[in-house]
Amino acid sequence: MADATLACPALRPGGRWPQSHGGASSGVAGVDTTGAGAAQAWSAPGPARRATTAHGRAGEAGRLAVGLAAASVVVNLLVSGNLLMAIGVPYAAEGGNLVVKLHPGTYLAVLAVLAITWRRPAATAAGLLATARVPLLYLGALAGCCGFAAAMTGRVHLVVFLENFMPAGLLALVLGRTGEAALRRLGLAVLALLALGVAVSVAETLLQTHFVPIVLDGREELEHAEDFRGAGLYDHPLTGAMLTAAGLFLASSEGIGRGWRAALTALFGVGLVAFGGRTALALAAAVFAAWRAGAILGRLRRRSLRASDLAAVLCAATVVPAALALLLTQTGVGARLLSHLYWDDSAQVRSVQWRMLPMMDPGEKLFGMTLARQELALHQLSLHWRIGAIENFWLLIYLYLGAAGFVLFAAGFLPFLVWAGRRAALPGRLMLVVVMLAASSSNSLGHKANLLTVLVPMALASAALRRPRAGPAATGRDATEDGARVAATGLHGGWQAARLQAAGVPAGRVPGLPSGHERGVGCRAPSLRAAAGEPARPRTGGLPSGQGLPSGQGLPSGQGLPSGQGLPSGRGLRR
Predict the structure, then answer these.
(1) What is the rounded CA–CA span in Å between residue 430 and residue 572?
(2) What is the pLDDT, as a whole number, of residue 565?
């Protein structure tokens, strides 16, 4: 890289690489300055070159493991616990064998992890310890919670940890090692299934009947006509509302076409109303509106507004209020939402449920309550207040484990959520915040639910959908030339970084410099090009000797600087 700097005196040393790329400290931060290693890796033909692309495919999960993990997510969305009960599997019935109490998607998640470990278990375990410590810590904490609950309060609570929380950690081990292409396909498949779930829920609402009966605690739930809510493909309408809220953010990723984004946003907005989850609807609407408004204001300050921004503002000012007025006044679900915009029985339950804590004796506060004691305490509360269940999963976990076990659970669960958020794009982080806040107002994660099993893969897939899919112009030799030019000049505009990432250039490694100086500023790097075995090529043009560019302007495409000459003092390239 020093050769490249000397070859172009106009280029300032210490050019910066985008901060998201780590690497060796040199004149260009984040660039592998060995030269030969980068050039050899990118000039190697066939499998050797493919092994260095896409962020190191050699360390990724195999196709079988990725397929099983994707199948687990799809099965969790298509096969609800209600459907299993309807076909005769006692999935939600009281008692019975643990084998039938686990969802088919849970078994697929276990098989996916086995698929990445069965060939070289020792090497895979070492790799996971190096790259997936947080999911492993999370799974270890869950194992400790299962053992603690079985020893202190009985085995009845084991299925909550095995069904609600464990599959998400198993899928994270596999999908955390998966390439962007597979994650992108998984994200699109999830969006399609979420749209199908909304369509089924809307149909159920129009017909005022559940296509698959809702079963809670082994008994079919009967709803009054004024309180009817479609459940779609899910165990409960609240689960559908939370996953639809997550889909609203995933559908707004930049990697999805604008037309599809608009259509899915409208569809998921209707779905949030159809499922009738007030907390999920309010949180999703508020966070989504603030996010999009912030993005538009940011582009307005940069004077880079798009036509779609203006269309979104006009739609938010005219179409959305009219549609909400129509839904709230002309539909049964809207009338239900309006009729419950006050301190109703459901809100009363969420306040009274905390009176369970003073009813626990010191041993129960430390080690948890048995199921019989929970039912007795709940019955005593129901004699004074209208309460039928605990509507906060954090409180339920505390009742299951006590303070000692709850600390262990929180020590694994909270870092796992942070890990998923750090690997997700901004839409994925927002969906995690919204769904976890909404879930904290219900008992969805305190009883059987596949919410996390779908939510965590969605968050990971958001990183693959954060930008449009790379086209032919951003792959192969073109991307390597862009990478070399950015590394040599220190120009780090967003489009160069995007093209490099889309082409699968590994972080911290930059390919050899362009040999023909076809575009932009071409600077020879003899060490890199010689290591790659590329012969020197004549220059294709440049500026006359002693002349430079006006301040603030860049070079036209296809031209470069003559050898040994630079720009006049004080004149530079536009960043």
Answers:
(1) 40
(2) 53
Q: What is the pLDDT of residue 14?
A: 40
Which of 14-23, 264-273, 342-351, 564-573 has the lowest average pLDDT? 14-23
> How many CB atoms within 10 Å of residue 533?
10
The dihedral through the CA atoms of 26, 30, 34, 35 has a sign that is: negative
Show the tokens assigned to 226.
């004024």
Higher pLDDT, residue 83 or 208 = 83
Q: Give the pLDDT confidence score for residue 484 in this predicted structure.
A: 43
Distance (Å, whole) CA 330 – CA 114: 52
330 vs 34: CA distance, rounded Å: 69
206: left (phi over 0), alpha (psi -120 to 50) or beta: alpha
Q: What are phi and psi of 182, to 5 degrees?
A: -65, -40
Cβ-proximal residues to 85 (8 Å cutoff; 6+ apart), any chain:
91, 92, 93, 213, 215
d(CA 377, CA 425): 43
- 3-state DSSP helix/strand/coil percent for the chain, to nearest 5? 65, 0, 35
Task: Give residue-wise pLDDT tens across range 408-421.
Answer: 999 999 999 999 99
Q: Where are the domains of the chain?
A: 1-50+510-575, 59-341+392-464, 350-389
The Cα 444–Cα 430 span in angstroms is 19
How sure is the predictor about 74, in pLDDT bands with cuts at 50, 70 and 90?
Answer: very high
The sign one gets for the Cα dihedral 350, 427, 316, 326 is negative
How crowded is the C-beta side of 440, counted as CA atoms within 13 Å? 8
pLDDT at res. 386: 74
| DSSP designation for 507 | T
pTM, to two decimals: 0.70
Q: How far apart are CA 398 and CA 403, in angstroms?
A: 7
**Higher per-residue confidence, 348 vs 129:** 129
For residues 145 and 405, the answer to whether their CB atoms sit within 8 Å is: yes
Largest Cα separation within the chain, whole Å, is: 94
Give residue 523's Cα distance to chain centre.
Answer: 39
pLDDT tens by residue, 32-70: 433 333 334 333 344 333 333 333 333 456 889 999 999
Task: Give the separation between CA 112 and CA 109, rounded to whole angstroms.
Answer: 5
**H or E segment to which residue 419 belongs:** helix 393-423
Half-sphere exposure of residue 305: CA atoms within 13 angstroms, side-chain side: 13
Buried b (16+ CB within 10 A) or exposed e, 457-472: bbbbbbbbbbbeebee
Q: Identify the helix (H) or strand (E) that includes residue 84.
A: helix 81-86
CB-based contact 100:49 (threshold 8 Å) = no
Would you state the pLDDT for residue 58? 33
